[in-house]
Amino acid sequence: MFTPSTSSTTLLDRLTDEITSFYENPTAVVPQVTAEQIRTHLQSFDFCKPIDAERVFEEVQYMMRNWNVQITHPRYFGLYNPAPLLTAVIAEALAAVYNPQMAAWSHAPAANEIERHTLRHIAQKIGLPLEALACNFTAGGSEANHSAVLVALAHNFPQTLEDGLWALPQRPIIYASELAHNSFDKIVKHTGLGLDGLRIVPVNDSLQMDVNALRILIKQDQNAGRKPFMVVGTAGITATGTIDPLTAIADLCRQYDLWFHVDAAWAGAAVFSDTIRPALAGIELADSVTVDAHKWFNLTMGAGMFFTRHAGSNARAFTVRADYMPPSEEAVSVPYLTTMQWSRRFIGLKLFMALAELGEDQLARMIEYQAGLGAYFREQLKQEGWIVVNETPLPVVNFTHPRIRMSAVSVDGVLTKLYAEGDAWISSVTLRGEKVFRMCITNFKTTRADVDSLMDQLNRLVSE
Ligand SMILES: *Cc1c(COP(=O)(O)O)cnc(C)c1O
């Protein structure tokens, strides 16, 4: 036996201390640091001689606490990065302890069945039929979206699995709105569909996919001899939190025999909320769905989910022969033959534990609480003379100020000062040619006082 010199057991107490104290005493939201500063600091780690494990731990702790944007802070109003539930942190540690190999079902029956049980519950909440359902955990929404395109290709053009895309007589076309997630730009590059194979559909005044424009584009492509095969509807657009008209898109897809994918990476968790669920109507009609567990389920990265009602096409897309892999029972779906990854972390444990521990009602309340805070901020903005430019039941607020529209100050100018003060983080997006602020509630620990503090700060900075 080889015993490495790391004194890991003494670190376990430090770890548990850090897990509790970090969230109780958060540091500044925005770090003031340069790459140069960090690189110089890292020079002391030349990996030649061993360093005392406690010192290494302290170094990591220092760098992580001081030199990152603290997305778990209650005044991080940013991208869809949640403050994780403590259960998720514990589940991460447990997953690492057992380190099950998910690829072969027969290597990890317990872990695979825990994931399957959890995913099928979510599928049911979405409204997908369980027979012929294929579902799996992914690294994130990008991988789930990528899986969707691969399965849609296998479904519509099974011959390409043998012959490749180039053998198709007509060019396959995907449709997504101008506000769809840019992972689709990568995916069409990776799959050989090419950026010219991704048709960008404009959005309407409500910042949702314009379904009439979609219909016209589909017809144009058909008339030009191309082959439309897939439409992506987004539920919870990254920039605006708006939701594409999913039922209308589903109708159109049925009419033209197109694969309907719903990218609900962030807002998918809201299927658990009776009050928000109606806004997602139509998601149950999808051929495939993306939901991230590491967004609104308030779990740690990375945890995405992919669902499709076409298990046969899913299996065709991913199956291979590998003699060195252990065989599995007939009746189970074998991860390495039905998903993009091979060796993979036990991603689903944290969602299983969180759902089991919270129960659906508390999960719904956690989501609705955050939506309520978003609505509260909208009201505050309007009362304080700001202009809100998006409408959504989800907690993403796009806004600007008359002084910005008059060019007395700029969005970037305000953001630079906000970041320099370090006390809160919001971002900006360009909508209809206008740069506006984007604020999102991503933390169930955020309070009205945190939102008020941001409001005060913005009022001050916009009038300077
Ligand atoms: C976040 C997001 C993605 C990408 O998901 P990752 O988990 O970051 O890979 C895709 N689509 C939408 C709508 C998203 O919000």
UniProtKB/TrEMBL annotation:
Question: Keywords in UniProt for this one?
Answer: Decarboxylase, Lyase, Pyridoxal phosphate
Does the keyword Lyase feature in the UniProt annotation?
yes
What SUPFAM superfamilies does the entry give? PLP-dependent transferases
Q: Does the keyword Zinc-finger apply?
A: no
Q: Which cofactor does it need?
A: pyridoxal 5'-phosphate
What is stated as this protein's family in its record? Belongs to the group II decarboxylase family.
Q: Which PANTHER family match?
A: CYSTEINE SULFINIC ACID DECARBOXYLASE, GLUTAMATE DECARBOXYLASE-RELATED
What this protein is called in its record is Pyridoxal-dependent decarboxylase
Q: Which organism is it from?
A: Nibrella saemangeumensis
